[in-house]
Amino acid sequence: MKLVLAVIQADDLQAVTQALNAAGYRVTRIATQGGWLRRENATLLIGVEDAQVDDVLNILRRTAQRRTAWVNIASEAAGMFAAQPIEVEIGGATVFVLNVERFVQLSSDD
């Protein structure tokens, strides 16, 4: 069993989770924030069998889109600080696939 941990842009959250759910995968979402750009992200936890990892990665490739955005970066020119817009690439997914030693689903009846 594997745990797929995927960090995606919040803008892609609905499309990604709908596609994963439609394919039969259950997803746990954690709201996160990127460090450098300070943009809202979502971290998804997806438990799958080993043979399902490639399918999940393909869904992420299709639905977590890369795009460009303009962000303001502070720069110093002539002793003054000013916001300088630069174009950066955002989106896509950062994915970690981790081995799961044990999986237990508990309920109040256990």
Q: Care to give the gist of this entry?
A:
The protein is elongated, with a radius of gyration of 18 Å. The strands form two sheets. Strands 2-3-1-6 form a four-stranded antiparallel sheet, covered by helices on one side. Strands 4-5 form a two-stranded antiparallel ribbon.
Can you describe this structure?
The structure is a single chain. The protein contains two helices and six strands. Strand 4 (66-77) and strand 5 (80-91) form a beta hairpin. The protein has one domain (2-99): Alpha-Beta Plaits (2-Layer Sandwich), CATH 3.30.70.120. With 110 residues, it is α+β, with helices and mostly antiparallel strands. The strands form two sheets. A four-stranded antiparallel sheet has the order 2-3-1-6, covered by helices on one side. A two-stranded antiparallel ribbon has the order 4-5. Helices cover 19% and strands 49% of the residues.
Features:
alpha+beta; 2 helices; single chain; four-stranded antiparallel sheet; two-stranded antiparallel sheet; 110 residues; Alpha-Beta Plaits
